[in-house]
Each structure stands twice: as structure tokens, then as C-alpha cells.
Amino acid sequence: MSDFYQNGVITNFHNLNQRSLEDLERELVRCARRRPMGLILPSLYSELEGPALSHIVDELARVPYLNEIIIGLDRADRDQFLRAREFFSRLPQHHRILWNDGPRLRALDAELQTEDLAPSEPGKGRNVWYCGGYAQISRRTEAVALHDCDIVTYDRGLLAWLIYPVANPQFNYEFCKGYYPRIADGKLNGRVARLMVTPMLRALKKIYGNLPYLEYLDSYRYPLSGEFSMRTDLLESIRIPSDWGLEIGVLSEVHRNYSTKRLCQVDIADAYDHKHQPMSEDDQGGGLNRMSLDIAKALYRKLATLGVQINAEDFRTIKATYYRIALDLIEAYYNDALMNGLKLDRHSEEQAVELFADNLMVAGRAFLEHPRDKPFIPSWNRVQAAFPDLLDRLHEAVELDNAGDV
Fold first, then answer.
1. Is 376 strand, coil or helix?
2. For residue 33, with 0-12 CB atoms within 10 Å meaning exposed, 13-18 middle and 19 or more buried, which class applies?
3. Which domain of life is it from (predicted)?
4. What is the count of structural domains for the chain?
């Protein structure tokens, strides 16, 4: 059972396990009459063959309040796209698949590249960006949620809790972030959030002061969760990062555009498990190694936009301060795990901290050497200024793909 404290600068909604899912869904059905709801599912084709997605689709088929489901499909050839259409056909809700590797969407992407407006690299950020564009032009929703397709512990209650704060017409929230405990197989998970993001934010606060932005990020219980919801019109103005800094980047964008009174987080699951990324110690281009680098660079870039002056010597201080805080947190996590009968390998935890500490320096050098890096995909407002009819053509391309003309 969750606690009930409000101890950050954003509203925190708790699941106190007192309300049935059936009652919550009945209210969401009523809310949907005034504020139609949708869901975005960014998916790799390989996830259609994994253990989680088929169960997720079965659960979603029982959701009574969704007006639209938008599936972004990556890494799929023509035959795989056709199989995906069949796979998702059991959804009773209106649904569309964005075949991101299909010729129609690739043609639109090439057109955007002529004006340097296309996503710079493939991945979840690009997938979500195109799905967000389609959600705007389909005009079927006023509130939309997003969650991953590899959640092996999924049940439809997760979606109900996630979307409720932005779907209830009596609330004025524009954005909601989901959080949950990362516990599976009798051990604590969520290493990047626990061992990298939290101690890094606390180190930055100690060095640069309690900046409102840092206090804001530190208010999120799980800032790296892949589950969030928002008003659909928010998708027009935010810039989505194309790298592994997606979650931190989205939080930064909504903080830039909205008062913290319009932002919230919600407890969406008692148990959550999904595909785990390897540490990839010897490969800075993969796994948690790459993720930690992209997150650190995202935070350095954001601090620079806030007027914080960061020089080469600062990174040594950041590393040393982070390292001490992270080691202290390992002690706290170990004791917490022990008290709850969970396993925690202190050796591998300290190895992770050592890697993340080194990456704070690597990310710092990259930040100083490439100050013009633009990891953000342009907002849809800017794209429409350059190509006023592009969203209409995106809608037409998706409709043709889903109608069978491929």
C-alpha cells in the first residue's frame, strides 16, 4: 500500500487499494463522453513475438473507455506489417498502426529531412513523435496515454490509473507520469533511476543550489518510467528527444511549458516488470551504458539553457559528489532490500555506480565539445509551419496502409 504524503512540487496521486477497477472504469466511461481518450503503443515488431504484448492486447480489448489506440510499429518489413495488422485486429476499439518503415511514412520522413526537421535517429523517440502527430490529426482524443509493450506484469488497471488524472474533466492537469516499484524475481531493479539519476540530481543540487528545475525532477518517484499521459494538445508544442534521454527530456519540456500545478504523478502498479537492458560496460553505444550517457548530457544541456555555467573543472566535482551520494544510497537500498526479504548484489551495484560516475565525465566532455548538438525532434508546431499539410498527408498514409493497400 502506498503512503499519502505530498512531499514534492508536483501533485502525487496514490493508489491506496480502496477502489475497485470496475468502479474506476465506470467513471472513466462517463469522463470519456466529455473528454475522449486514446492510447499510444510504441512497439518493435519483435515484441509481437515476445511474452508480454499478446497479453497486453487481450487486456486492452476489455477496456471500455478508449476511443482510439495508435500503434507505432518499428523494424517491420511488409510481411511483418501484415502480420501485425492481423495481430492487433482483435482490438475492438478504433485502432491504427503506423508502419514506420513502410514506403509511405519513409517518403514523408525524407521530405522532412530536406528541411532538417526529421528525427535524427531511429528509436522510441521517433516512434512516439510520429504517433503523437497522428493523434493530433485523427482528432479522436482529448487525452492520451502512452505505455511500453514489454510489460510482463501488465493488467488494464495500470492504464486506468495512468490516464485518470488527465481524463477527468474536473481536473486541470496537462501531464501525468506513472510510477511503481521496480521489483521482480525477489530483487530490486531500476538501477539507472536508483543509482544514477537520483544521486546525480542530489549532487547537482549540492553544487549549483536548489534550482527549481532540479527540485522539480527530484519530485518524481520514478522519472525514467515509460508510462505517462497528457492532454492531446500538449503534443503540438513539446520537443521529443530522439535518444535515450526521452523520459528526462519529456519531463523537461512539460516543465518549460506548464506550471508545476498542471503536472502530476500517479502510482499505477503494485508490481511491474519488463525487458531488462544489459549494462554493456564495454559498449558506450548500448544498454544502460548508453542510457546513462544520454541522460547526463540531457541534464547538462538543460542546466545550460537555465543559465548555469558549467566548465571542465565542474565535472570532476560533479563526479566526486555523485559518487559519495550514490555509495550512501547503496547502503540504504541494501538495508531496505534485506528488511523486505529481497536480494541486492552490493558488488554489482558498486560496479554500476563506478560506470555511471565515469560516464558523468564522458558526457561532460561531449557536452563541451559538441555544444550545438540538437537531440530534440522539432515540435509539430514548427513542422506544420514548414509543411502545413504534412499531418493531413500522414493521416492519409496511415489510413492507406491500414486499409490494405501496401
1. strand
2. exposed
3. Bacteria
4. 1
pLDDT of residue 215: 96
Give the pLDDT confidence score for residue 251 in this predicted structure.
94
Q: 349-352 long-range CB contacts below 8 Å, 24 or more apart? A: 349/191, 349/195, 351/279, 351/281, 352/191, 352/195, 352/196, 352/279, 352/288
Q: What are phi and psi of 229, to 5 degrees?
A: -135, 160
* Residue 243 pLDDT level (bands cut at 50, 70, 90): low
**2 is a domain residue:** no
Are 158 and 24 within 8 A, CB to CB?
A: no
C-alpha grid cell, residue 373 = 548538438
Q: Is residue 30 part of a domain?
A: yes
Q: What is the number of other CB atoms lying within 10 angstroms of the CB of residue 186?
A: 11
pLDDT band per the 50, 70, 90 thresholds, residue 246: confident
* Residue 40's CATH number: 3.90.550.10
Specify if 6 maps to a domain: no
Amino acid at 42: P
In a domain, residue 316? The reply is: yes
Domain that holds residue 120: 11-403
SS (H, E, C) 248-305: HHHHHHHHHHCCHHHEEEEECCCCCCCCCCCCCCCCCCCHHHHHHHHHHHHHHHHHHH
